[in-house]
Specification:
Layout (H helix, E strand, L loop, with lengths): L2 E6 L3 H13 L3 E7 L2 H11 L3 E4 L8 H8 L7 E6 L4 H10 L1 E6 L4 H12 L7 H12 L14 H11 L4 H8 L3 H15 L4 H8 L14
Parallel strand pairs: 1-2, 1-3, 3-4, 4-5
């Protein structure tokens, strides 16, 4: 089945390019495109796309605010930021708002399509430069007690560690030899205990932890 995609982008030229890339690619279906946050907020919940590409610098309400408002009504949709902003504030505001990935607009077509597939399968794609910024930020943080972490079971901490490593749900299920349904249940409980609603927020709370299990991906 094709991955359903929506676009929120106010630049008509960029929107046209993205539309062309997605509609011509095998395995993708473009279900809608919107030039502003306002229009997306009123219509996107009806579209229910699996992946949503979002620009940050939209006319009117920002893309980050748009994601924050849409996430509760589209909990199964994955938001992938596609922007020119490379600074830490925008990156972490987007991730904590509910975005699962962050790419720069200069990302080539094939890398963008691969990122859509990755975020759809449970991954957190980021442009390499952005990923380095994230790692650098995390390394500078001072560990401090965080509410909810002490409530996690050993298995939940294990899965949280895998989420932080960027594992897709299927990869976690294979590595731990449990079903994807069980993974979903554990992730839901992690979100509830940490009072978060996205992988980005959960990973942000994971950072101060030490000694979480590290599981290598199986060789294929």
């Amino acid at each position: 089945m094709s991955i359903t995609v929506s676009i929120i982008e106010d630049d008509s030229n960029v929107r046209t390019i993205l539309t062309d890339w997605i509609t011509r690619a095998e395995g993708f279906e473009l279900v809608s495109q919107y030039p502003s946050a306002d229009k997306a907020l009123s219509k996107l919940p009806e579209d229910k796309p699996e992946v949503i590409l979002v620009d940050i610098n939209l006319c009117g309400e920002s893309g980050i605010a748009c994601v924050r408002e849409l996430k509760p009504s589209l909990p199964e949709s994955q938001f992938l930021m596609l922007t020119v902003f490379e600074d830490g504030d925008h990156i972490f505001d987007a991730l904590t708002a509910g975005a699962s990935g962050y790419l720069l607009k200069r990302t080539p077509r094939e890398e963008l399509l691969a990122a859509i597939r990755e975020v759809h399968s449970g991954g957190s794609p980021m442009t390499s430069y952005i990923a380095r910024r994230v790692v650098s930020f995390f390394q500078k943080q001072t560990p401090s007690p965080l509410s909810g972490l002490e409530q996690l079971t050993a298995r939940e901490k294990e899965i949280l560690g895998l989420l932080a490593q960027g594992f897709a749900y299927k990869e976690m299920a294979d590595a731990l030899q449990i079903s994807i349904g069980t993974i979903n249940t554990h992730v839901l409980r992690i979100y509830q205990k940490l009072h978060v609603s996205s992988r980005g927020e959960a990973v942000a709370k994971f950072v101060p932890l030490r000694g979480l299990p590290q599981i290598k991906q199986k060789k294929t």
